Predict the structure.
Amino acid sequence: MANGETENDLRGLNEDDSIVCRCEEVAMSEVRKWIAGGYDTPDELKRLLRVGMGPCQGRGCREIILREISSMTGVPVSEIPPGRIRPPAKPVKISLVARDYTGGDGR
Amino acid sequence: MNPAVREAEILVVGGGAAGLCAAAEAAVAGARVLVLESDLHLGGQLVKQTHKFFGSKDEFAGTRGFKIAGKILDEMASCKDKIETVTNANVMGYYPEDGVVTVMVGEDEYFKVKPARIVMATGAQERLIAFPNNDLPGVYGAGAVQTLMNVYGVSPGDRVLMVGAGNIGLIVSYQLMQAGVQVAAILEAMPNIGGYWVHAAKIRRLGVPILLRHTIKAALGDVVVEGAIVRSLANGETFKIDCDIICLAVGLSPTAEILWQAGCEMKYVPELCGYVPIRNARQRTTNDDVWVAGDAAGIEEASSAMVEGRIAGLDAAASLGYEIDESRFGVYEERLKALRSGETASRIRAGLARVSANGFLGGMTSDGFQ
């Protein structure tokens, strides 16, 4: 099947619509817009767009974002600041953490 | 009430090929070991490997992966008074100021543990790529499909498009066909097949095309996957493939969150598929209390993961003062050297040379990496 014959199938489909962060439903267009604006590190994009802040904590999108930054800025992935990775590695209910509370009034 | 912080001599994070070998080795040396596994059962990726392994006899070449897991569990059972295992347990954080590790079991239990030593054997995660409609139900990681089929006995669909002709893409394609699922084609962006030819040949004999220099341009469908548009990287031509499942087998990356939190010096090494910790020949990282083994140390194969686990477990036990037979290190280093000797391992050797550099071999030889 040649190019022309897939035109109908591809109508309305744009690479920019690809989902980068499935947890927070962030599209490639958003990521590209901010990288083009100079926000070209994962930490900045995380604060702006919440990419990597959902249930998987960036396991799905971190690399896609690094590759996109690299291809747009020409900076090799190894030289892009990878971003700060903090606990918790997965979302946790606040009640579980609170159960361990021992500060202040000694509860 | 002051909640108890549990103690452990050696905490092994991850109960897969590397972690279980580390646990067995450390326990045989006399150490008390706590193994935390995020899945519902031990064995990691081994439990879904229905094919026979290559590698070396010492790492059970010729045996099917899930049977290898059984052998390691038997070894652990021989010193079961030394090993405690907790499944469905996620390590949530490592706090370097006091060395406390937080753990969530299921979603309703939470505890702290302060281990003297840690072996990080957290494995890998599947790499994803972005394309339009990549969020449609029916787009899977190949590893996820393998788990569905081989662990849970669930068929993912009727007709699969596999993206990636590395070993995972090839093996999962073959196993899909064994399960009665059609494989429409295997796409590979590179000009050559990344996996072993023996796996590729089995698939070709069954008539499945392996399309080199082809990539996925878009998934099609309104509510679920109904097909895919594929593009040739050679001439830009696009065409449609009918399928209800798209399987991504485009690589793995080391799972490194807790290593970052532990302050281990990390380095991006493309040959090892991502950020991995700098370590010495005994798998010890720049955090003196932390060792690394298996895919978390760089994407390789289960055979070398098992040997790395043994080295890490043995060295962690030795660091606690347990008497060990030093000659074991030599034996394990020889095994690694053999596993990494071939042409296909040249990438691994190059990657390892980069994370073992800068004099951080602690006086130990780097021969195993040459």
User: Anything to note?
Assistant: The longest strand of chain B covers residues 109-120. The radius of gyration of chain B is 21 Å. Residues 359-370 of chain B have pLDDT under 50 and may be disordered. The longest helix of chain B spans residues 302-319.
